[in-house]
Specification:
Helices cover 45% and strands 15% of the residues. By secondary structure, it is an alpha/beta fold. Strands 2-8-7-6-5-3-4 form a seven-stranded mixed beta sheet, with helices on both faces. Helix 8 (221-229) links the parallel strand 6 (202-207) and strand 7. Helix 4 packs across helix 5. Bound molecules: (2S)-2-hydroxybutanedioic acid.
Length: 390
Amino acid sequence: MLEALSPQPADALLGLIKLFNADPRADKIDLGVGVYRTATGETPVFRAIKAAEARLVETQDSKSYLGPDGDMGFVHALIPYIFGTGFDRARVEGMQAPGGTGAVRLAVEVAKRAGVRRILMGVPSWPNHAQIVAAAGIELVTFGHVTPEGTADLDALKTALGQAGPGDCVMLHGCCHNPSGVDYTEAQWDEIAPLLASRNVLPLLDLAYQGLGAGMEADAYGLRRVLGAVPEALVAYSCDKNFGLYRDRVGAFYAVTSDAEALNRAMTNGASIARASWSMPPDHGAAAVRIILGDAALTAMWLSELDDMRDRMRQVRDRLAAAQHVGPIAMAPLGIQNGLFSILPLTPAQILTLRDKHGIYMAGSGRINIAGLTTGNIEQFIEALRTVAA
Ligand code: LMR
């Protein structure tokens, strides 16, 4: 029977990891998958995570099952960071999910059970968004996210919303847009929030990089603005990047409603979807996050590590922007974009040449991982780009 299956291509971004690892060149540069790297190219475990893990190993006396909603101490500890300390706690509940991907999948499946038939999404977007929506069997409606000037395209969102209504869900990146780095400004969020409310659509906010853009509070501006305007929304959250827990798969799914019964329905549906999918999320990373957020000294340590990451990425962006023009590529916009990613307007042939001739690996969309550029390789990168883009 299995011969009836048609072979599937490997995920392009994850395939890049393998290609990069197999490349023997010592001066190769990995700008592919979104992991943070230090100025010397490492992705170390956060010191705060190491300390929390040590405490976890010492104090954990059972690995018995927790349940489909995972570690609720972890889920609740994140709430003030995501929703703000003043948010009406009765409106929100959540559950743990395996990474941001698990959280998006849960949110999309809950939306589907709630009657959502179409998901509107700005493009380009994280390629897995479209895959998840397709896997859930929901129609995807796209609109442009970036203007030719390199700003977030509010008009395109407005036009898409003008044709949307009840039964539609709108997926928005909370901050550090993946793959473009182009976020809505605060003034744009101020317009988006009441518009979402007036169209009666269900917002799905994906917050996968909180703290890596302008800071933990500033990066939640759009999400909080939306939640202040709409009666209901879904949130997918990831700790994979801002706690550096990538392979431990640490995420959470939240529902926000205006009545307790609807909240309970969202959560019980989430739990039943989780049970039939992964049964229970992995515990270790979420428990480490819970320990950090329950301890003032560890929280301060984590936040300072996050500050260092953000500062470093800002320095890389400043250096890239200072290049002004690399061939026809305007580099200045990279200086005002946010987070791990930006897109360079390169052709597939140029992307391939950068890989084959210069050992520089980036996604097929021209997306680069800003943190893959280090003090040791950034000049080499700009030079290679100059050669290829000339
Ligand atoms: C990325 O976009 O590189 C990350 O979100 C990792 C992933 O799972 O795609």
